[in-house]
Write a structure and sequence with these properties.
The protein has helices spanning 10-13, 16-26, 97-100, 135-144, 154-165, 174-177, and strands at residues 32-42, 45-52, 60-67, 76-84, 121-123, 150-152, 189-191, 200-203, 214-216. With 253 residues, it is an alpha+beta fold. Among the domains are: 10-84, Nuclear Transport Factor 2, Chain: A (Roll); 155-224, no CATH class. The longest helix has 12 residues, at 154-165. Helices cover 18% and strands 21% of the residues. It is elongated, with a radius of gyration of 34 Å. It has a 4-stranded antiparallel sheet with strand order 1-2-3-4, covered by helices on one side. A 3-stranded antiparallel sheet has the order 7-8-9. It has a two-stranded antiparallel sheet with strand order 5-6.
Length: 253
Amino acid sequence: MSPRTPKADAACVSAVDLARSALVSDVAADAVGEHLGYEVEAERVVTHYFAARQPGYDGWRWAVAVARAARAKSVTVDEVLLLPGPDAVVAPEWVPWNERVTAEDLGPGDLLPAAPADPRLLPGYTGGDEATEDDDVAWVVRELGLGRARVLSPDGRDDAADRWYEGDGGPETPMAQAAPGRCATCGFLVMLRGPLAGMFGVCANVQAPRDGQIVALDHGCGAHSEGAAALVGPVRPRREGPSTALDTVAWDV
C-alpha cells in the first residue's frame, strides 16, 4: 500500500507572509519574486515556494519550510533554501575526471597513470629489479614480454578487443565492406603476439588509411596487397561447401 498523503495544515498553508518575511530577512528583497505555491512535506510541515530573482538562476525558486508543533497555535520557520525548479538551468550530472579524460586530452608532459586497482590490469609477478639482475635472465624476460609490474587482465583485453573490433579498424565499416580482400590475407599485415593475435594485426601499408594502426583480421581496404586480382576477369562464383562439416578442433576424430 502506498503511504497516506499527509493532510495539509491550515495554519502552515496560510503562513505565506511569515515565509516571505523570513526569506527577505536572509536575502535581498529584490531577489524574491511571487509566491509559486506550496508542498505538504509531512504532518504540520509545509514548504512554500517563491520565484528567485537571482541573476544566473533561471527557473530556480526559494523554498521556505514552515512547521507547527502539536497543539501549538503559532507557526515557525524551519529553513530557507534555493532549489532548482522543474525548468531550471542546472549543471550537468557530475562525471569523474577519469571518465571524462580522453586520449586527445593527453599532451606532452601530462601524466595519466592507471589506478592501483584498475580492473584492466593484473600483477605481472615478473617485474622489479630481481627479474633483471642477470643479463641472461633479462634477455629472456624481454624476449617473452615479461618484466612488467602489471599486465593486461582478461577484462582489459576484452575491453580493447571490443573497442578495436567495433572501431574504424573493424569489419563493419564501409571501407571494409567494399574491400577486395581481408587483412588476414594481405601481405602488409604485421601479426601480433599474445592473446589478441588471433583477431588483430597492424597495417604496414603506407598507402592504406590504417597504416601503423590496429586492424581486425577481417577488416579490409582497397590497398590490399592482392587487390589487383579483383580487376582481372569476372569474379568466379563461390563454391558451396558440404551441407555438413566435422569439427576437428574441438573433437578428436
